[in-house]
Amino acid sequence: MWSQRSVVDYGLAKRAALASLSSGRVTTTDLCDAHPYLLRAAKHHGEPTDRQCPVCRRRKVTHVTYVYGSELGRCEGRVKMTAELVEMAREYGEFRVYVVEVCQGCAWNHLTVSYVLGTGEPGDRGRRAAGK
Ligand SMILES: [Zn+2]
Fold it and tell me: Which of 16, 26, 29, 63 is most exposed, with minimal Cβ within 10 Å?
C-alpha cells in the first residue's frame, strides 16, 4: 500500500532560501515568483495545510503535488490529489511525486519533498498492457 521510497526532503534548501531573504541577499520578488499556472493549480487542485507562509505570514500554504515517471504516459507532469496517489501507487510500478508549497497570497513557492511510490515492479503495467 502506501510506502514512500527514496524520500528527498528539501527543507534545507528552503531554509537557505528564507535565510537569504532575511539577510537581504535576495528579495521577495526573487522568491515569490510562482508561475501563474502554479498559482492556478494551487487554487483549483491544491490541498490546504496548517502551515503559515514563511514569507508573508498572512496565509497558509497550499500543497500542489506533481507526478513524474516513464510509466505514467499522459499522466506525467499532472497535478494529483493525495487520494489519487494511493490508487496510483497500486497501479504503477514506480513514479516520483513532487510536493510544492505555494502561498496564494504572496506567490511564495518552494519544493518541499519528493518521493517514489509504486508497487516496486517497474514496467508492471506496461507488460500487462503488452499482454506478456
Ligand atoms: Zn505568502
Answer: 29
